[in-house]
Amino acid sequence: MNIDNLLKMANQIGQFFESQPDREQALMDISTHLTNFWAPAMRRELIAHLEKSSESGLSNIVEQSLLIHKHRLIE
Amino acid sequence: MYQISEKDFGTPAQLAEQQVTLEIDGMSITVPEGTSVLRAAAMAGVNIAKLCATDSLQAFGSCRLCLVEIEGRRGYPASCTTPVAEGLKVHTETDKLATLRRGVMELYISDHPLDCLTCAANGNCELQTMAGQVGLRDVRYGYTGKNHLQDSKDESNPYFTYDPAKCIVCNRCVRACEEVQGTFALTIDGRGFNSRVAASQNETFMASECVSCGACVQACPTATLIEKSVIETGQPDHSVVTTCAYCGVGCSFRAEMKGNEVVRMIPDKQGSANEGHSCVKGRFAWNYANHADRIVNPMIRKSINDPWKEVSWHEAIEYAAKEFKRIQDKFGRTSIGGIVSSRCTNEEDYLVQKLVRAAFGNNNVDTCARVCHSPTGYGLKQTLGESAGTQTFKSVDEADVIMVIGANPTDGHPVFASRMKRRLRQGAKLIVIDPRSINLVKSAHIKADYHLKLKPGTNVAVISAIAHVIVTEQLHDKEFIKNRCEEKSFNDWLSFASRAENSPEALEAVSGVPAPLLRQAARLYASFPNAAIYYGLGVTEHAQGSTMVMGIANLAMVTGNIGRAGVGVNPLRGQNNVQGACDMGSFPHELPGYRHVSDNAIRNQFEAAWNVTIEAEPGLRIPNMFEAALDGSFKGLYCQGEDIVQSDPNTQHVTAALSAMECIVVQDLFLNETAKFAHVFLPGSSFLERDGTFTNAERRISRIRQVMPPKAGLADWEVTMALSNALGYPMNYRHPSEIMDEVASLTPTFSGVSYSRLDELGSIQWPCNTLAPEGTEVMHVDEFVRGKGKFIITQYVPTDEKVTRRFPLLLTTGRVLSQYNVGAQTRRTENVQWHDEDQLEVHPHDAEERGITDGSWVGVESRAGKTVLRAILSERMQPGVVYTTFHFPESGANVITTDNSDWASNCPEYKVTAIQLVAVKESSQWQNNYQAFNRKQIRFLSDRERIDTDMVENS
Ligand code: SF4
Ligand code: SF4
Ligand code: SF4
Ligand code: FES
Prior knowledge:
heterodimer, A: mainly alpha, B: alpha/beta, Rossmann fold, Dimethylsulfoxide Reductase, domain 2, Barwin-like endoglucanases, six-stranded mixed sheet, binds iron/sulfur cluster, binds FE2/S2 (inorganic) cluster
């Protein structure tokens, strides 16, 4: 899938959770949102992109969430 | 259920608890206080003659036919305007009364054409019936006096005629237009003998303010106002109760039939959603079902560059199944999917998602609710615990303050709008939050107390600012919050809402709403006992659609406006079965009843019932399917009842995706825009041709009933079943009721629903189970479905779709009353007489700057594409914002809209597109290409290889 679109969608999700008060929880919630609503292929592509690029194009909060909760996204 | 005419009690029912006992013709009867003597008599089985009274309208007392004698009272009071009183003794038939009534009838009849035998109302005319009932035998004045027999008919309305020669000036039509519809289009013009019904300022009905709802026609006791279909076909011989196939109000109708032919659709007084009212679509725009464009034989073709070939059902289904299997073998299990529509019944929606999960073996199923109310599903589930509106429509009768956000009920949900307007005329306050001056802002006898005319895309800023005022001015319901909501979530949210950055003053520049106005509106919402929020796609179809839905839920909770009549969070659903399609598990991540596919216990139940393994991961949403098609991993689609090419945003992106696919199966009534990219066409059946249920915006499940056989031989649910069987997954339902039984057995909120229960109760609002055997009117009464209500922080994030120098204006889209969605149905009716093209509403300032004049062509360009529309200058718009509808494919409104979508649900941001306008003389390149492609596809249809229909029937 078009990685730019995936990045945009992931960053939008990040923007929402950015404003939630508990950062730990927000990082968890981002990954929960992705596992709940994104088809596995989309999650895999996102993680693969993150792993291979130095500049992922992801916001801080999304990148952090993916790094911490990667195992939840691609099992 | 099968009777033609419903009993008319003469005056409306009264709800008073106090009961009154009286005697009518020696019979004792007990009725609620306030009931008229006329109605009490009807309840006792005594039908007093009447003409100006009907039970949908307040009594008027003008015809003097319903006179009675009351012991101890003088004279002959009109029973329709006389309320009952304890111990009254009423006589309805005496010699004196008979003489008086005959005298009244004589006057009427002396000015009436006596062409009863050839009159269209013959057999169903109250004047005729009353003449019979009062025993009129002679007209002493003769028939040659002054009369109106030469007055000319008004046949301007495509659906009904007005023949003043037959008018008895009973005023019922005028009152129906006022009381029931709320349009105030009719008056009685002139005095005495000269008085006649007049539409607006003595205009024709079509030229007047009339919105063709049909209420006056229904109220008319004579043939003065009568449906043209009755004039053409004659009086019906039986009727069947069914449900309108258009909007989410879900009006109940009696399809009045002559054999297999519909004569007219009459709104059902017993229907709880509409209580006898209708709009122009459901009432009159049903004849698309018989349109010559209906395709009734299945068709296949190898490529979209080939002409179609008609084949038997068997061949079409086998071909589709073989193609799907071939694709899965080559590209993998997830390379195909299904899209189902909110226009389909619950049973059809359920079957398609079952087919995808069980026969395709993946979760790639989605519904068009993706592009309208998916944020409602998400937002209300997070905050309140259930993805549904909280009230019944009638709840609005108890609202003190009504807040309408991003909805245009008079056009989108007309029958509910009439009800809302009635409440507003009774004095309820109105707050409208909308970029446009919708009709509700100012119309006959209605004026919004506040109209917050925000800039498109700033809903969340406005809702946060309202919340800010409420909490900082201590207007919140502390008791409710303490008892009913999560403490931590409230405290977090409270500190968020209280921040200075969320004050109306701080957000004024962003939203364009003057802070003092917003403050007053917030106070109004919070300061009455019952405040109700109604919202539509102007809330959901935004990059922050889900956030806004949560903001609305926050607002209802913080003011304690939830859990009883008169309050609540009410999403006005676009299409008839948006709620139902979502309930039935049409989303890729959810099984029926909003249960996530990853929930092992739930999935196991379905696996056991369906005898199959279900994928535990969510599938692709509609926009994901397009993306996957473009990257080559999604190749096959089963699309039932939905026209994604016309209705989804960024048309060129959608058509590129579809062109990249190998097998698209479209099931529909017509060769819609998506079907032009299809390889298999399976003819659909109209709402008159099949059984099933729809669930409206109130969670109300209502039956649609088959009144004629499917034109193509199979009903839609049978087609899905055949496809599933051909794919090797057996489905063997004998009737849609068995599908509903299966839904009920697997879905706790539906466990009490069955066709026999629906027949018994008329309709049922889910949840319906052992806890609520008759269904649930108001949700979250004692506690929220999720336990405690959860406040969620709704930080405003500006959309990426920003105005720039290149695209300095914002386009927002919507709909009109006479057309429905992509227009596939309404464009094929006389409704085009009201609206025959999509037009662009532009503020005169924006127009002037660009040399655009009223009625001229204007090029509209966005990042996504370019089209040309006719401009209409309108001050309903604010400068900087333009508006159009998307009912006609050739206008290409969605060529302009972009891929931007809601962060949580991917619902497209139809309501905000940055554009530029230029005056032009000719159509856009896209339109030229479209015309050429369309001509080719129409030719492929008309040149199709025909099949011998006898052979099809025998196959
Ligand atoms: S048009 Fe019909 S309803 Fe209206 S005043 Fe005349 S008879 Fe009565
Ligand atoms: S059709 Fe409806 S809007 Fe038109 S005049 Fe009759 S009641 Fe009024
Ligand atoms: S309001 Fe909606 S459901 Fe009712 S008649 Fe009109 S289109 Fe049909
Ligand atoms: S019906 Fe009572 S006055 Fe006409």
